[in-house]
Amino acid sequence: MSHALTEISGLWAEASKILRHKICATTFEQWFANIVPVRLDNDRIILGVSDDFFADWLRNNYEDILASAIQEAGGKAYTIDFESGHIAKAPAANCAIPAKEEPRTSPRYTETVQTPVPAQKRIHNGINPRHTFENFVVGEENRYAHAAAMTAAGTPGAYNPLYIYGGTGLGKTHLLQAVANETLNRNPNAQIEYVTCEEFLNCYVDSLQQRKHSEFRNRFRTADVLLVDDVHQLANKAQLQEEFFNTFNTLFHKNSQIILTSDKQPSEIAGLEKRLVTRFESGVAVEITAPSFETRLAILKMKQESHLVKFGDDILNFIASNVRSSIRILEGALIRLVAYSSVTRDRAVTLKTAEQLLKKLFEQENMTRKITVETIQKRVAEHFSIHVHDIIGKKRPKNIAEPRMIAMYLTRKMTDKSFPEIGLEFGGRNHATVIHAVKEIEDSMNTDPAFKQTVSALQRQIQAIS
Ligand code: ADP
Ligand code: MG
User: Fold this and answer.
1) Is residue 410 part of a domain?
2) I need a surface site. Which of 115, 128, 249, 303 has the fewest CB within 10 A?
3) Which residues are registered as beta bridge partners of 192?
4) Domain-embedded: residue 145
5) Residues 348 and 380 in one domain
């Protein structure tokens, strides 16, 4: 162990001891026992936690107590920084050859809460054992992706490659890892390689630097199942694309299952070589779109069961109606309430309390995700090379009428606006006209896959720029 590492470990061990005396055992176990000391940087101490919500909670509720314990332990004041993505005692990176998991005593939980840390256990490098098909709520928006992933797990090679795409926080990684978990259930000896595209890059660069390229090749080119998360990160990385292409071909010819996720369709990834676009498009591509209110509510109901708490329907409705864009944020909101109820031992959280606790989170969500009618009109007009005033105006030729209907449809889908409000935003049209437009677009999407692709691509682009 390096000197620096000993120093931070020692400091954190001492601070932990002090903390144990200052706060009750349950709170300690819940909030401090899983903190990982990462490094010391002069007067800065970097502590590793599982995710941003955990960090936020510590900052908002325990910053003073934490700072004073560290000061007492170290004899001087430190600035505390949190780093997300750490799980206590789990291997730090995914580049290493998978090691056997060390036996670990499971943390003690209170009776009301499991823990806000998502993964306590890693059975396979990088794969969260909770990302299973059973834990995945199926709705209209992810039905095809779910079915295709099940097929990939049950009949490997049937859909090759399987390409799952959609916005962030919508369950792509969950599905990808569900395939891994299900494959391992069926065949514990299956060689599964799960990496994010970024890890693939890091491992590749490491292998070149350490002259271990054949090891790298062996690892990826002998896999039974290769799961690569976030392949949009291949964008504009020519050398990595070359390596990826070769890996892909080797596995493809052996009929090993390949599954890729991305936030875009292959053809939309900037600077992705044509031959990779073709490969990615040669199997089955499925999209996950933003969840409807019903799906969001169903997810909240399922998640709260795993946390062993029960919130009123008014609270779940409140969360589901405020978070539209990401299931990760939806989950984060719930975890915040679970954590609050566990720390304060308040078993009957009221809607008023929930509103207060989640106010900031929802404000952020609304701010970053405020999709306006203007943004939609502008993007749709650009796409069809017409003017925004054409979309709002009275003219009716087909080259204008169709984009206008698409813009109305997207406004209905992506904002809170009612039919009459949308009518007003589109040059004072009647609400019946808007209803008709939405219906027309839905019908065309159901019958014309190319049209559906155009509309979904526009939706994703608007989501991304908002
Ligand atoms: P992405 O990879 O698309 O950004 P993730 O797969 O990481 O999204 O999902 C974000 C969070 O939401 C994860 O905790 C995941 O378990 C959860 N989640 C996503 N979709 C569902 C679903 N349909 N049912 C249950 N949980 C879901
Ligand atoms: Mg992901």
Assistant:
1) yes
2) 249
3) 225
4) yes
5) no
Residue range 128-143: mean pLDDT, rounded: 94
Supply the residue whose CA is at minimum distance from atom 16 of ligand 1: 174
H-only helix segments in 323-417? 327-344, 351-368, 373-383, 388-392, 398-414
Return the ligand number nearest the Cα of 233.
2
CA-nearest residue for atom 13, ligand 1, is 328
Are residues 188 and 45 part of one domain?
Answer: no
Q: Which two tokens stand for residue 64?
A: 């003073």
- Our count of domains for the chain comes to 4
Give residue 119 CA to ligand 1 midpoint distance, Å: 13
| CATH number of the CATH domain containing 45 | 3.30.300.180
Residues 133, 207: one domain? Answer: yes
User: How many residues make up the chain in this entry?
Assistant: 466
Distance 127 CA to ligand 2 centre (A): 12
- Is 230 found in the same domain as 152? yes
Q: 275 and 150, same structural domain?
A: yes
Which H or E run includes 288? strand 284-288
CA distance 225 to 98: 15
Give yes or no for residue 331 CB within 6 A of ligand 1. yes
Q: In b/e form, how buried is each residue of 139-162, taking b as 16+ CB within 10 angstroms?
A: bebbeebbebbbbbbeebeebbbb
Tens digit of each residue's pLDDT (9 = 90 or more) over 100-110? 333 333 333 33
Domain CATH number, residue 460: 1.10.1750.10
315, two tokens: 């609270």
Q: List beta partners, residue 260.
A: 163, 228
- Statement to judge: residues 174 and 223 lie in one domain: yes
- Give mean pLDDT, residues 377-388: 95
The pLDDT score that the predictor gives to residue 147 is 96
Domain contains 55: yes
Q: Please report which ligand is nearest the Cα atom of 170.
A: 1
Question: Which residue, judged by its Cα, is nearest atom 25 of ligand 1?
Answer: 136
Tell me, using a 6 A CB cutoff, whether residue 142 lines ligand 1: yes
Question: Per-residue confidence at 123, pLDDT binned at 50, 70, 90?
Answer: very low
- The rounded Å distance from CA 229 to ligand 2 centre is 6
State the closest ligand 1 atom to the C-alpha of 302, by its place in the atom list counted from 1: 25
Is pLDDT larger for residue 116 or for residue 330? 330
Angle formed at CA 186 by CA 97 and CA 295, multiple of 5 degrees? 95
Greatest mean pLDDT among 77-86, 151-160, 319-328: 151-160
Ligand 1 mean position, distance from CA 135 (Å): 10
Tens digits of per-residue pLDDT, 14-47? 899 888 877 666 567 767 888 889 898 888 999 9
359 and 387 housed in the same domain: no
Half-sphere exposure of 23 (CA within 13 A, CB side): 20
pLDDT over 90, % of the chain: 58
Q: Does 403 sit in the ligand 1 pocket, CB within 6 Å?
A: no
Instruction: Say whether both 281 and 332 belong to one domain.
Output: no
